[in-house]
């Protein structure tokens, strides 16, 4: 079994969620048969893979400790969460020693996507931009909904409150 470590801020953490947390989450969710049918090893692998993919995103705030490989003689953390100065969509600041619920839910939902597919659903094949490609007599129909590597829309929506916004956007919070 892969060693899944979901301790917030640990230097060897590789997941934002434990298999037990995900089992509880999916026990209350419809259309989760791929998760419920998966072996514990595959569940752990899916959570680790989902965490690795989510860690490619840019989040609000800064890591609580330096990320592994960026500091000398200081305690480090392996993953981008936990973070300091990351605000909730209600204007509160997340505690700097936890993994926020939106990140946990996004991790679990992305893990389900990985388990539900026979191949990497986010892989870059070079053909993601096309609905249809035919070689002889050439037919090309562009696809405008999805590009390679993009997170599924439900995962992106879950992460929206903690993703770093572009400098052109301003977050407005009612008091």
Helices, strands, pairings?
Layout: H1 19-27, H2 33-37, H3 40-54, E1 62-63, E2 83-84, H4 101-116, E3 130-134, E4 139-142, H5 153-159
Antiparallel strand pairs: 1-2, 3-4
Helix pairs in contact: 3-4, 4-5
Quick structural gist:
Helices cover 30% and strands 7% of the residues. It has 175 residues and is an alpha+beta fold. A two-stranded antiparallel sheet has the order 1-2.
Number of strands: 4
| Overall geometry | globular
Main-sheet strand order equals: 1-2
Q: What letter string, H or E per element, gives the SSE order?
A: HHHEEHEEH
Mean pLDDT: 85
Give structural notes.
Strand 3 (130-134) and strand 4 form a beta hairpin. The protein has helices at 19-27, 33-37, 40-54, 101-116, 153-159; strands at residues 62-63, 83-84, 130-134, 139-142. The protein has a two-stranded antiparallel sheet. A two-stranded antiparallel sheet has the order 3-4. The protein is built from five helices and four strands. The longest helix is centred in the middle third of the chain and has 16 residues, at 101-116.
Features:
175 residues, alpha+beta, two-stranded antiparallel sheet, 30% helix, globular
